[in-house]
Amino acid sequence: MIPKIIHYIWIGKNPLPKEMQECLDSWKRYMPEYELKCWDDSTLGEFSNVFMNEALEEHKFAFASDVIRLYVIYKYGGIYMDTDVMVYKSFNPLLENHAFIGRENSMHQTGHTMEVYLATCCFGAEKGNSFIKRCLDYYEGRHFITSCDRSLPACLRMDMTLNSYLFTVFAKEIGFKSSVLADYVQKCQDNVLTIFPQRYFDSTKYTSDTFTKHLALGTWREGKKKVYTYMWKDKIEWRVRAVVESLLRRYKYIMLKLE
After folding, report:
1. DSSP readout, 60-98?
2. Fewer CB in a 10 Å sphere around the end CB: N or C, the chain?
3. Where are the domains of the chain?
4. What CA–CA distance (Å, rounded) separates 236 from 112?
5. Which element (helix H / strand E) includes 217?
């Protein structure tokens, strides 16, 4: 059973922004009995990882947190959430899973097909879960800095692989179907990992199944504009995605009728 611990990460000297504090308040409102564990500069001494240390030196805190979130969930068990995740109801019904995660609300092109990645803004697992270990092992002995040539752009000088992509690759190894149309509950490798539809943790709109919503405030982005500008752009994107998703669902229905 997944323990009632919520892990979150906040690195650096800046205080938690108001919008993120409101997210944390929602965690406490719906899950008052859960322990909240903050991993910050004062607790990073527990970790010893080259990838994480190099990311910290470059002030790429989001990539450092990719390692930290996996480490703490593997070692202690519990639930990890980004600080910009708003909670709408208790996670108690999810705790019987060995591990859980949801699908993102965005699509990615792979070759000639479209697929959906896993939403790493919110996931949970029992201590020692094998899927979490598989993801964590990716960072073992791996360097974040891939070139010492500072004239190169960051994307060529650093390993900036999205953790949502890594989770998806390793989940596909144990049976995850990443197709846009496979938006249903998936039990992978004897329930080692349960994958929920997009509406559970990264919904474009609230439903009775929705546990969380990722606000995607993106404080880690360099040169980021004010939050309200990003949020307005985000709302427009959600409406476009909703239309595309509706068309894809209709296409699936038509194909089933033809069969």
Report:
1. -HHHHHHHHHHHHHHHH-EEEE-TTEEE-S-SGGGTTSS
2. C
3. 5-223
4. 26
5. none
> Residue 103's closest CA among 200, 246, 209?
200
Please give, one letter per residue, the 3-state secondary structure of 146-169. CCCCCCCCHHHHECCCCHHHHHHH
Are 92 and 190 in contact by the 8 Å Cβ rule? The answer is no
Please return the burial class of 222, using the count of CB atoms within 10 Å of its CB with bins 0-12, 13-18 and 19+. exposed
Per cent of the chain over pLDDT 90 is: 71
Please name the fold of domain 5-223: Spore Coat Polysaccharide Biosynthesis Protein SpsA; Chain A (3.90.550)
> Using CA atoms, how far apart are residues 207 and 160, in angstroms rounded to an integer?
33
pLDDT value for 255: 47
Give me the residue label for tokens 């990539």: 63
Which residue would you say has higher pLDDT here, 258 or 199? 199
Rounded to 5°, angle at Cα 106 from 133 and 19: 85
Quick one: pLDDT at residue 251?
A: 59
- Tens of pLDDT along 96-153? 999 999 999 888 877 778 899 999 999 999 999 999 999 999 999 999 999 999 999 8
Extended beta strands in 82-140, E state: 85-87, 99-103, 108-110, 113-115, 118-125
Single-letter amino acid, residue 170: F
**pLDDT reported for residue 55:** 95
The encoded tokens of residue 215 equal: 């606000």
